[in-house]
Amino acid sequence: MTTARQVHLVRRPGGMPVPEDFAIVEAPLADAGEGEIQVQGLILSVDPYMRPRLNADQKLGEAMAGGGIGRVVQSRNPKFREGEIVRHGQGFSERFNSDGRGVQVLNPDPDLPLSVYMHALGGTGITAYGGLLETGALKDGEQVFVSTAAGAVGSVAAQIAKIKGCYVIGSTGSDDKKRWLLEEAGLDAAINYRSENLRSALKAAAPRGIDVYFENVGGAHLDAALACMNLRGRIAVCGMISTYNGEREGVRNLSVLIYGRMRMEGFVASDFPHLQEQFQADMTGWLKSGRIRYQETVLEGFERAPEALIGLFEGRNAGKMLVRV
Q1: Does 132 share its domain with 33?
Q2: In this predicted model, what pLDDT tens digit does every residue of 12-53 receive, in sequence order?
Q3: Are the C-beta atoms of residues 206 and 138 closer than 8 Å to each other?
Q4: Are 119 and 87 in contact (CB under 8 A)?
């Protein structure tokens, strides 16, 4: 018997989460039982979808839900060997026991950092890939707008669109991120929505309109994009981060969907199991060739997980937010 730390939600946030909403708790942990494995956490994934869960779905006084990468340190399950690297959805636990459900053995490419399996080659990567190519039905050479284009999902979606020969506009919240989008990710245009008038800047950046909008924000971003959409444009709705902390930005022109014959459709990463094999092959090749670039913000130490989640919503991350356990 040992102990392992967990991150618990101890009260529901009233708007933006604050440190007092969370607690680091020592929990007892037995050795792995028959049919079980024990996993030592290595990397935790911090993602926007976690915020809406704090309002109701996440139980108080339990380890917060989330994904990560770990190493099997005990195994009494024939499907797993001690020392194997695994990807899991067991949440914010420093170490945990599992019967193996929801845990997958990873065989990481030795030429790539392990952390990319938490973003470009993980859930955020398949979200961008499937959302853009299947839900957004992207065609080569189209006009594309991606909101929060410097984030973990948006940056991948924007660069895939460039690989497909598209004209790509991205929005972001700082001049540093805007510079990265133009100089490193190779976008055709970028907008700092905090310092520029989003609606007029997008209009100027999209002289040929927008065929596909990869939506991560909602509110004013959706309002601005709708005003620029081309006939039979597609809006692939990945997230609505502007509403997650209780804010409500009105969208005034949804009626343009009607006469523009547009399609707006939401999706989640688990919609695309049939794309996984091709995604893994494509993304591995793009990463190794440098055609997909990425940024990571890595906080060192398990106890910094609440800080990482709060920082995500304050825009303190560049690219994917991670915690190294």
Answers
A1: no
A2: 998 899 999 999 999 999 999 999 999 999 999 999 889 989
A3: no
A4: no
